[in-house]
Design brief:
Blueprint (H helix, E strand, L loop, with lengths): L23 E4 L3 E4 L12 H17 L10 E6 H4 L11 E5 L7 H4 L46 H12 L4 H6 L2
Antiparallel strand pairs: 1-2, 2-4, 3-4
């Protein structure tokens, strides 16, 4: 994201952005959008250049360190083409940032602002905004029964539920009326 000449930050929604020089921008808590020609109102990045730009952004973000602690800020950057499907895919971010524990996007960035400092201490309540890389968030499955099979990841829950429904499904309606 490139700001207009003389601007160092902005608290309002993209108020100081120089769209003619901006290749990518952040919006929301962990989404990055490529400023694509023919998709964005002031897009400048050709579709043929998009993949290389995403790779460059991904590499730079995963190299980002907290200057005070040298801790990694970003663990993984996910390609939107790989994680989103369906009709709404066109509206989804091109990249999704998986932050290391203890890091997140700023409050200003989430709303299209540009803070002065790249990394700053968070002094506000921070709760449940789902920015941490999934590899750092263990899942827990609570049930009131013992699962019939182990569940290693969320993709297996559908299979578990289907198997339970088959085991406990009500008798076929024709079976129920045969005895009458």
């Amino acid at each position: 994201l490139t700001l207009k000449p003389g601007q160092q930050h902005s608290s309002a929604l993209f108020a100081s952005v120089d769209w003619g020089k901006t290749q990518a921008y952040a919006l929301g808590l962990n989404g990055i959008f490529i400023n694509r020609r023919d998709r964005e109102a002031h897009g400048i990045v050709e579709e043929s250049d998009s993949a290389a730009l995403k790779t460059q952004i991904r590499e730079k973000l995963t190299e980002l360190k907290d200057p005070k602690t040298e801790a990694a800020v970003v663990l993984q950057v996910y390609d939107g083409d790989s994680i989103y499907q369906g009709k709404a895919k066109a509206d989804a971010p091109d990249l999704v940032v998986g932050y290391a524990p203890g890091f997140r996007a700023s409050w200003q960035t989430a709303l299209g602002g540009v803070p002065i400092e790249l990394i700053e201490d968070n002094k506000e309540k921070w709760s449940g905004d789902h920015l941490i890389d999934p590899s750092q968030v263990p899942g827990v499955l609570f049930t009131n029964f013992k699962p019939t099979q182990p569940v290693q990841h969320i993709g297996e829950i559908g299979t578990l539920v289907s198997s339970l429904l088959e085991l406990t499904s009500p008798p076929n309606q024709s079976d129920a009326t045969d005895g009458q």
